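Trying the structure run again after the queue cleared.
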Amino acid sequence: MIAIIDYGMGNLGSVQKALAFLGYDSVITNDPSTVMGADGVILPGVGAIGAAMEALKSKDLDKVVHEYIATGKPFLGICLGMQMLFDTSEESFGGEPVRGLSVLPGKVVKFSSDMGLKIPQIGWNDLSSREKMIPSGEYVYFVHSYYCVPEREEDIAATTNYGIEYCCSVKRNNVFACQFHPEKSGEVGLRILDRWAAQTKA
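Done. Tokens:
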């Protein structure tokens, strides 16, 4: 069973439907014991990181994320769920920078308006992969205004280019995360999701 963490924000239904299509059982939950008992956990998310972190903390799910990752079982962050894994974000909340979960060292920064590109980035972009779970050269779907800057080069699983080349996926031990939405990225996204979910049955 795969647990999809429900903290009141996120693309929960589309993630669950994608998993069901691939043949994986999942549950949308905010119950810590259900999360801890899962074979794999997904932290999805859309919207503002400050509100998302507040919602996560209000249910003590920030602690659960750390406890679950410590078990070594597969963990996946999607979009905002990837950004929350880092130390800080430039996106303010109550006038202050937002502190993330600090699972991975690094920060989240906003695309510069000087690039002359539309912000947020909405649409399809191709991947340059450093990780076998991600196919290189394939196109996936993005919706975001901020991007992750990992401190450790070795944590970068894939990059893409939107005015600048930036990290769009990370992998360290049992933690995998992507800025793009695999559940909305057609056959390519489903292959990536399937490769991750297959680990939950190992």
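The helical segments are 12-22, 32-36, 49-58, 61-70, 80-83, 186-197. Worth checking whether this holds up in the mutant runs.
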